[in-house]
Structures are given as structure tokens and as C-alpha cells.
Here is the input.
Amino acid sequence: MKMVIEVKEVEKSYGSVPVLRHCSFCIEEGEIYGLLGVNGAGKTTLMKMILGLQQIDGGSILVLGKEAGAGAEYLSNIGSVIENPVFYEHLNAEEILSMHLIYMQKEVNILDALHLVGLDTERKKPISQYSLGMKQRLGLARAVIHQPKLLILDEPLNGLDPIGIAQMRDLMRKLAKQGMAILLSSHIIGEILKTADRIGILSDGSIKQEFKVAEKVSEWGEHFDDHVVEFMRGETV
Ligand SMILES: Nc1ncnc2c1ncn2[C@@H]1O[C@H](COP(=O)(O)OP(=O)(O)OP(=O)(O)O)[C@@H](O)[C@H]1O
Ligand SMILES: [Mg+2]
Here is the structure.
């Protein structure tokens, strides 16, 4: 299997406050990796560093063998939704996606992408009239329309209704089957459990536990959440 992302011994501090220390993990082609951690654990910081939006203090991040942040070619392999997606509010979904495709220098059918996230009938509405869940869906359409090899989703279920959550899960599985590597963060253990192939628990600045979901579901059974919460707290079990 081909490695899509390799995070090695990454260090990050904001001023004198350390956030990440010796943080390492890898994600293979076609794999969904769930990043779990308490508020402030450093999930968004890590994702921003992969996108070249935050400087790395030490260690290295490689996406398809290229150092993080190395220009347009590097970014064309990645799609992302970090926290809540931001758009020009006066534009509509079609316009947003066509601008993005110009930027990415790709020609892809916009209607297909909007259909994928269930926004085809809302495509002419200005974004200012979108609900939170509709914005999340459009953010996802923008993240995948240029067919990246790596998809980074920071709390993608935020604001989605139960149908939206189920659709998002199906969509992630479908994209992973096509070979996309997906890095997903969430606080909702149950949802990560249903979606991810592997889980990494970010605590005290590094991935303290990493496991295949299927293995631990059969080992821990109904106590799965209890174990995960203990790991998230940074306790060793
Ligand atoms: N731009 C910044 N400047 C200074 N400190 C920051 C900055 N961004 C994040 N931090 C701090 O870094 C730590 C990690 O924040 P981060 O947003 O990465 O956590 P998170 O795991 O995404 O949390 P949440 O689950 O709440 O989204 C926090 O202590 C936060 O206060
Ligand atoms: Mg965050």
C-alpha cells in the first residue's frame, strides 16, 4: 500500500506553549484515519500544518513524498474543510465551485459534485441564505471536486442533521474505496467508530494510542467509549 501522508516527530509551540511533541502517524491510500482528542489537543493545528497554513517547528510532514506547504502542486493533491468552511457569501454554490476549479486548474462537472452532497437544487441560492449544514456540504463538495489524493476533514459532522451525517459517512467510505486517504477529526466517538478504519488518539501533544477500529470493537465491546475517553484524558490503561 502506498503511504499518502507521513507525519514524523512533529513539534509545534505557540510562543512558549508546546502543542505538539514528537507527533507521528501515517495514512495509507484508501484508509480513513480518525483523529480523536479533547478540545485544545492540537487536531486543527496538525491539520493546518499539513496544509502549510501553520509553520512546523521540528520534524517533518510529507504528503505523497512532498514536504508540507510546497506550493500549488502540493496543494492540488489535498482537499480540506478546516473548522467551518468560509465562502464569499454573495456568490452561489455553482460560482464558488467554478472559481475553485479555475484555481486548481481542473475541468470537472460541477453539477455532479453538487449532486454528491445533495445541493443540486440549491445551487443558485446565495451562500448568505445557506444553513450551517448546507455550508458544510458545500465545503465538502469544494474539498473533493478536484479529486485530491488526501482529504482532510476537521469536525465534518458539525451542523449536519442525522440524514446528512449518514450521507457524509457513505460518501467518505465511497471516496476511500476509490483510493482517497481521509484524515478526519471529531469529538463524537460513536461517529468516528462508524466511519474510521483506524483511530489515533492525540493527547499530551502526540499520538498516544493508535488502533484498528474493528479489532478494538471486538476486544472492548460495550466499553469501547470508556477506553477511548481514558486515552483522550491522557491516562495510561
Ligand atoms: N493561532 C494560535 N495562536 C496561539 N495559540 C493557538 C493558536 N491556535 C491554537 N492555539 C492553541 O493551541 C492548542 C491547540 O489548539 P487546536 O485548535 O489545534 O486544538 P483542537 O484539538 O483542534 O481543539 P478543538 O477540539 O477545540 O477544535 C490550544 O491550546 C489553543 O489554544
Ligand atoms: Mg479544532
